Amino acid sequence: MSDSADSSASEEHPRVFLVVIDDSEEMRVALRFAGQRARHTGGRVALFRSIEPVEFQHWMGVGEIMREEARQEAEALMERMSEQVVEMTGAIPIIYLREGTTREELLSLIDEEKSISILVLGAAAKSDDPGPLISFLASKAAARLRIPITIVPGSLSDTEIDALT
C-alpha cells in the first residue's frame, strides 16, 4: 500500500483514543498521552465518563436531586477536559457520558462503538495498585475487549509524555 493510501485511510477512519475521565492525577497523564498520540497520528480523542447510580434511595426526591447534581458535576468535568483536548489537538473530542457502573458502561461502549481503537488509562503513581479499573480490565475483562489497552504510568511528566509520543 502506498503512503497516500495510508494517509487517506487514516483520514476516513482515524484512530480514536478513548480516555476514562475522573478526578485523578493519572487521568490527566492518560489524557495528555492520548492527545499527543492523536495529534501525531491524525487520530481523535474520545472522553468517557459514567455517572454511578445513586445509592441513596430512601426518599425518591432526594435521590433524584443527588443524581442531577452528579450529572452536572460530570458535565462540567467533561467540558473542562474537552477544552484541554482542543488545546492539545486542535480538534473537538468525542464525548460519551453514560449512567451506570463505570466498568459495565465502558465495556458496553467499546462493544457498541466500533470507531474506538485504543483505550488509554493512567496507572496510579503513588500506590502498588494501578487502580481498580486497570486491575479489572487486565484480569476479568481482558477477554471481553476487542481493542488494546495502553496503560500510561501516572508518574510521567509532560516532557516525558511528549518524548514518548
Task: Summarize the main sheet.
Answer: 5 strands, parallel
Uncertain runs: 1-10
List the strand order in the largest sheet: 3-2-1-4-5
Provide the structure class: alpha/beta
Give me the CATH superfamily: HUPs
CATH topology: Rossmann fold
The CATH architecture designation is 3-Layer(aba) Sandwich
Mind telling me the CATH class? Answer: Alpha Beta
Q: Please compute the radius of gyration using only Cα atoms.
A: 17 Å
In sequence order, what are the helices and strands, one letter per element? HEHEHEHEHEH
- End-to-end distance: 24 Å
Helical segment tally? Answer: 6
* Number of separate domains: 1
Number of strands: 5
Give the % helix.
40-55%
Oligomeric category:
single chain
Strand content: 15-25%
Shape: globular
Provide the residue-averaged pLDDT. Answer: 88
Task: Record keyword descriptors for this entry.
alpha/beta; 165 residues; single chain; 50% helix; 5 strands; Rossmann fold
